[in-house]
Structure formats: structure tokens, C-alpha cells
Amino acid sequence: xxxxxxxxxxxxxxxxxxxxxxxxxxxxxxxxxxxxxxxxxxxxxxxxxxxxxxxxxxxxxxxxxxxxxxxxxxxxxxxxxxxxxxxxxxxxxxxxxxxxxxxxxxxxxxxxxxxxxxxxxxxxxxxxxxxxxxxxxxxxxxxxxxxxxxxxxxxxxxxxxxxxxxxxxxxxxxxxxxxxxxxxxxxxxxxxxxxxxxxxxxx
Length: 203
Known about the structure:
Blueprint: H1 2-39, E1 56-62, E2 69-75, E3 92-96, E4 109-115, E5 121-130, E6 140-149, E7 156-166, E8 172-180, E9 186-192
Antiparallel strand pairs: 1-4, 1-6, 2-5, 3-4, 5-8, 6-7, 8-9
């Protein structure tokens, strides 16, 4: 009689042990399933990206190995020119004024201006090449990109891109003149680079 009771108690303890293991395993699996979205987040899409701070975005890039100062100047319709000496207007703001290597710990040579909303009419984009030292100058290329962020969908779309040779220190160039409507639609017939001076004074 005592042997039967002993054997039955041994089976019960084994069952309890198995149940405990299964419950622990089920809890662990549930925890892993709950944590999966945080361990492997879904791929970032246009809708999940942080919204850019403006609608019309003007960017200029030049070679990282060149210690030169390229100034971006932009003008929205019915507004004043915006550049290094006047970094904000009614519509545009210059967010980054890059002087080349001077006081810049990053390798990239880059300037950018953003607009607040879309102001219909003609927009003008100029570059001015300025360089402090007097060593022998070697011409180089800069890339200018115009992008539009739709105010309703937040979708970012490139409108214009141009690569221009900068070959004269102190020279100001008009890279783009173009017209947008209230919705940000580009009037392709309006695109030209007829020079208009935006920079005022001397640096």
C-alpha cells in the first residue's frame, strides 16, 4: 500500500514539473511575440518619416575635399533674398551656412534653405563662390537640388537638379528661376537661368 502511494506521488510531482515547464515556456513565447515589433521595427516609409521642416527645399553640395565657401542665395515671390547675411525672410530660411573646413567638424560641404509653405510665383536660386585664402584656385562642380514637400500628403518630390562649374572666385550665378502655383506644381515653361543678382554688399 505504501509503495503504491509513493509511486502515485512521484507521478504527480512529475506532472506538476512538466506543467510548470510548459507554463514558463508559454510565458516566454508570449513575451517574445509581444517584443517582436520592437526588436525588428517595420521598414520606414514616406509616411512614417519625420516631416521635413519646410515645403520648398533648396540644397547645394560641393566636393568634400575642397576647403571653399559656396554661398546659397534664394528668393521667394514678393520676398527679400535670403543668404548668409540675411538668413530669414517671410518665406525662406537658410538653415545651414557652410564655410568649408572652417569651424566645421563634419566632412560634408552642404547648404540648405527651406520655405514655410508654398508661395505661388517665381523662385530664384543663386550660388556665389567665395574663398578666404589666396592660394591657386582650381575650378570645381557644385550640385543644386530643388525639392518640394506636398503640404497635404507630406510626400517629397524632386523638381530640379543641376550641376554647375564654379570657376571664378566672387562670381554670382543664377542656377534656377522657376514658377510654382498654389499647390506646388512646377511650370516647366518658366524654368530658366537668366541672371538676377540676389547677393547685396560685399563679404
